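User:
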Amino acid sequence: MAETPASDPDASVDKPVAMPPPSP
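Assistant: Predicted structure:
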């Protein structure tokens, strides 16, 4: 994860997927 550059679009998609919003 740390090796993945912030410029990578994949990182932006992996962020929300790895940490989904808390369900009510």
